[in-house]
Task: structure prediction
Amino acid sequence: MPPRLGLKIDVDTLEGFQKGIPALLEILAPRGIKSSFFVALGPDNSGRAVFRVFKQQGFLEKMWRTRAPAIYGLRTMFYGTLLPAPLIGQGAGEILAALAAAGHEVGLHGYDHVHWHDHLLAMTQEEVSRELTQAQGIFASFLGREARAFAAPGWQCSAASRAALAAGGFLYGSDTRGYAPYFPRFKEQINPVLEIPTTLPTLDELLGFHGCRPEDFTALILGRLAQADLPQVLTVHAEVEGGPLGQEFATLLDGCRDEGVEFFRLEDWARELLQDQEKMPVAAVRQGRLPGRAGMVSCQGPLEAQP
Ligand SMILES: [Zn+2]
Result:
């Protein structure tokens, strides 16, 4: 079996919508790669996110290495703080329709990305559902149907957020960092929505390490793909790989092509997996730290058989 790779592309900001998506389409189209885009559709409060990470240890060093001002642009860094937060969904219809028409999967990456990232663990199911409903309303107004897939902002999920996905009828979620698809367990409660975790480190995480260069990323991902028994999922950011690190991303894709890697959309894999739902394992979700990333993210625990 050739190695298989799913590209999960998160779009967090207006900048990501307006510049990142078109740049990514220019990279993906000539290579014939179909991927899964997850879009945040509410206010772009990314300026607040910048102040949040500013308070975290190791931030300045990482900012320097990852060239954050170049990635996010100065305007984006002040949205929601000095400048009013623009609504990402306004005027997003054409680009969403273009994504779908080009054969890419389009799912949701929340409504208010920054609010979810910072407050999810304290939110009730009703509060999460409100965010989902707002995002679905905008999504449906553009694409004529609701989104079937959800990717949590900042890889933050909880029993409440997963219950809201179940109530919202989502086919699957991609909310966590892990190693294989599963049904997430929170204490005694098993969530019925399939989870397809991100399995590979991201480009911006790797560049957070001293002395790491973009070409090291290509080598790392190709190495992991060559060893993997299961399809792998890589998270890409429209603001990063569709911005200043576009050339590095294109190099990675060309390396994958040379190794015969097959690309898939997460939704197609989810449908395949759900045909054999009873064989799907369960795993607990816990908050953990990842090398090169500031703050905690939701991580997959060890696999358990389905009860
Ligand atoms: Zn995001």
About this structure: Residues 10, 12, 109, 113, 153 surround zinc ion (CB under 6 Å).
